[in-house]
Every structure is written in C-alpha cells, then in structure tokens.
Amino acid sequence: MKKATLLFLILIIGGSVSAQFRETQNVIIVTLDGSRWQEIYRGADSSLINSKYTKDKEEVRENFWAETVEERRKLLMPFMWSTMVRGGQLYGNRDIGNKSEVANKAGSSYPGYNEIFTGAPDWKIMGNAPINNTNKSVLEYINKQPGFENEVVVFASWELFPYIFNVKQSGLKVNAGYTDVAETDANGHIKYLNELQHTIPHPIGETRVDTMTYELGKAYLKQYKPRIMYFAFDETDEMGHRGNYQSYLNKLRQQDGFIKELWLYIQTDSTYRNKTTLIITCDHGRGDASPWAWTEHSILIKNSIQTWMAVIGPDTPAEGEMGTSTTIYQKQIAQTIAKLLGFDFKANTKRAIGDPIESITRKDVIVNVAKKQ
Ligand SMILES: [Zn+2]
C-alpha cells in the first residue's frame, strides 16, 4: 500500500467522510415489554417450568424444552437464533459476560421507554403515571428533519405511549391502545382492522392485544411506507405479572414470528430492502427465576435493570452474539438511531444523552475502506 493511500484511509476512518457511505435510510424499532434476557439467551427455564407458574408442564416441555441452551433458545425464538444471529448483533448475554442495561434505577416501563427514546434517564420519572413527558424524544427530533416530516410512526399496545411521546407537544403519530388509524385514505384492510379491534375480546383492559397492534401497524407500514416505525408490544410483561410462564413463553415465540414476518417484508420491498436497520429490545428486565421474583420488576427487585438488544441492518457488521465484556445502556439507543440516519440528536439537547453504540454503526467505516481501496 502506498503511503498516500494509507494516509487517505486514515483520513476516511478518522474523519466524517465515512458518513456519506452510510446505508441506513429507514429504522424499525420493536420492543417486547419486560422480556428477560434469560429466556432470550437460555431459552425456557426448567425451574419455572417445574414451578406453580406453569400449569400444563407437559405441553410446555413439548413446545419449548431441549437439552442444550442452544437448542432451547432456538425453539423459543427461531428467527432470533437464525437470521438475527447470522446477520446482526445480539447484546446482553450475561452468561458470556456481555451486558445490556437501563441506566435508570426504576426498572419499570415508562422510565425505560423514556430512557430509550429521549437518550437519558430522568429521576422525575420513576413510575407509570400518565403524565406528559417533558423530555424531547429522538423520534420527535427525526420527525422534524428534512425528508422525515410525518415519516415517523408509533404503533403501541400500551395506552400510555401518547404520554411517553407527549403527542400534544411533539405532534408525533402515536397509535396506542384500541385506537383507529385515522387516515381517511386508509385502505379497506386497515378500515376492517379498525373495526375488528373493537369487537374482539380485550383481555388486558385498555392495553391492546399485541396481535392487533402488529396487524394494524403492518398494514400501515405496507400502505404508507414510513421511514421510522416503532412497534411497542406488551403482552410478555403482562403474562409475567400474571405469573403465567406458559403464556409468557408463547408470547415470546409469537413476537419472534411477528419480527420474522416484518423482516421478510422489509427485505422484499424496494423502499426498505438493504437500507433499513431493525432494532429489537426491551424496557426493563425482571427478577430471577427463584422463588417468585420473575413475575415482578421494580427498583426493589434485583436484576430489573438488565436488558437485551438485537440489531440487524446494512451498517451493522454481522458479529452475531456479542462476547465482549462490555455494557451497553438503553440511553445509548436514541443517539444510535440518529447516527444511523446521519443525524446528531445529542447536539440538539442539553441533557446528558448516551453516546451511540459504535459497534452497531461501525460498518460504514469498514465498507468505506473497502470501497475506497
Ligand atoms: Zn410490568
């Protein structure tokens, strides 16, 4: 290699030139409320299957049990342990020393979502009271950037999301709880789903069942092709609180299927294919399996701050399960999303926003060098 070439490469790696080679133009975020890293990385837990939290033990063993951790987790989340691990990055397997956490101490939902999307914990937000968030989210910020106006959409099961994203102030499109898609030009399928969601059973009160959130969101995605879409699912947390381990596992598998279908759509649609990053994570962890703590999560329940994250996209090197002894925080996600799209959210706020997770956005540098050689 000539000296001049080497110098050029160093300049590219060190400088901002690499930004122009970033491939991400769209971002899809999915959260599985209160889903534990333990199940993601270890599969179904035998002590919980053998406890009072599992009614039909035989059926659960048949569906989710295998001898090795590798087999078990793939049984539970087949998409996570095929496409995601082959083509993306998985964070938070504490069994191999890789950690993912919330930086807030609350260990509950509103504080978790606030941290993920506004980029920093807020000590004033410790519970789930329906109070409008005064912190600006990265979604609100992106929604105001040229080319992204009205291109940012949230579909959530939990009815509190309009508060978390402070829709009155932010003007973000947030479809949460049993809310209809309001667009007058919505297609017949969306209009049908609008009606259907009011006639189906509502087993978790005001919180919309995830299947409806998913189906409505997917239909919206297909018709309107937003550039940023966030799916917030809820039922994993709900089943945890109910102490129903079988349903908790069923929901994890179901949501893994939703994500698989989404990714398949993304990678076959010309708007999204090879220019969309998918981020999957959670808002908090739960207690350990024994003897009862897994059903709950809070500031008082140990390990509630433990999370996990999976990412796949054109700017993210396919490193699979991350084995580095590092800790990433949910507060880093906002700036990571911004960076993937070429924006700097941090520069627009006085709050102590988390730095981007460099390993996720690294490929622009690598690809850049390869292209320039
Ligand atoms: Zn909860």
Could you describe the largest sheet, including whether it forms a barrel? 8 strands, mixed
Oligomer: single chain
Stretches where pLDDT is under 50 for at least 5 consecutive residues are 1-20
CATH superfamily: Alkaline Phosphatase, subunit A
N-to-C SSE series? HEHHHHHEEHHEHHEHHEHHEEEEHH
Helix content: 25-40%
Tally of individual domains: 1
Q: Count the E strands.
A: 10
Percent of sequence in beta strands? 5-15%
Instruction: Just give the CATH class.
Output: Alpha Beta
Radius of gyration: 20 Å
Gap from first CA to last CA:
10 Å
Mean pLDDT: 92
Structural classification: alpha/beta
Shape: globular
Q: List the total number of helices.
A: 16
Bound molecules: zinc ion
Detailed description of the structure:
By secondary structure, the chain is of the alpha/beta class. It has one domain (3-372): Alkaline Phosphatase, subunit A. It is 39% helix and 12% strand. It is built from 16 helices and 10 strands. It has an 8-stranded mixed beta sheet with strand order 5-4-6-1-7-8-2-9. A two-stranded parallel sheet has the order 3-10. Helix 11 runs antiparallel to helix 12 (210-224) and helix 13 packs antiparallel against helix 14. The longest helix has 22 residues, at 245-266. It is globular. The site of zinc ion (ZN) has 5 residues, from helix 13.
